[in-house]
Amino acid sequence: MKKHLKKVHIILFLCFCCCVAGAETTFNQGISCGGGILLQTDMVGGIAYLDFPFWTSSSGFLRGGITAEGLGGNLEPYGPNGMGNIGIQLRAGGNIQPGNQASGILMRCYGFTDGICNLIGSSRGFDIAVTVTGGGGFEIQFLPDMSVFWEYGGGVIIPCTASQNTLSGFARHSFGFRTYFK
């Protein structure tokens, strides 16, 4: 698993390096959508975003939106399972533009929090749970409408059905891309 993760990071870094050469300095900050890979304790899957700017300036931002996730793995205490999630995310952070305005790269460091509704399917049937997560992220916008991101955090799954009454904590790492519109 670690060997494959290292390969994915190298490929993303090479794609970033190839795109920086043609970068421009005017960055779109409107509605964004994106997707990525989600690695969670004992589970792996994908994540999709649609978010909106609440406040944007040259030094910082506040954004909120909708996330959709699909995961599979071995989540305790459910055993082997698949999980479909939909939730809301809030991101707040600062913009860093290295060097001068002509550098063509905009970096963002941010914190995030999510509230997620989970539908968990296992050999025992379906369960419903709520997940609360938080963490930090780093985003590099190298084209006017495209960026790559890395996020790391953790959370807790709170069961909502009588069949489960155990809280389950986890760590998560996600990385992928976002496309911005005006």
Description:
The protein has one helix spanning 2-20, and strands spanning 32-40, 43-56, 60-75, 79-96, 106-122, 125-143, 146-159, 168-180. By secondary structure, the protein is mainly beta. The chain has an eight-stranded antiparallel barrel with strand order 1-2-3-4-5-6-7-8. A hairpin with a 2-residue loop joins strand 5 (106-122) and strand 6 (125-143). The longest helix has 19 residues, at 2-20. The N and C termini lie far apart (38 Å). The model is unreliable at 14-25 (pLDDT under 50).
Uncertain stretches: 14-25
Strand content: over 45%
Secondary-structure element series: HEEEEEEEE
Mean pLDDT figure: 81
Alpha-beta content class? mainly beta
Give me the count of strands: 8
The helix count comes to 1
The largest sheet, given as strand count, sense and whether it forms a barrel, is: 8 strands, antiparallel, barrel
Percent helix, as a range, is 10-25%
What's the overall geometry? elongated
- What radius of gyration results from the CA coordinates? 18 Å
First-to-last CA distance: 38 Å
- Strand neighbour order, sheet with most strands: 1-2-3-4-5-6-7-8
Provide a short characterization of the protein structure:
This protein is mainly β. The protein has one helix at 2-20, and strands at 32-40, 43-56, 60-75, 79-96, 106-122, 125-143, 146-159, 168-180.
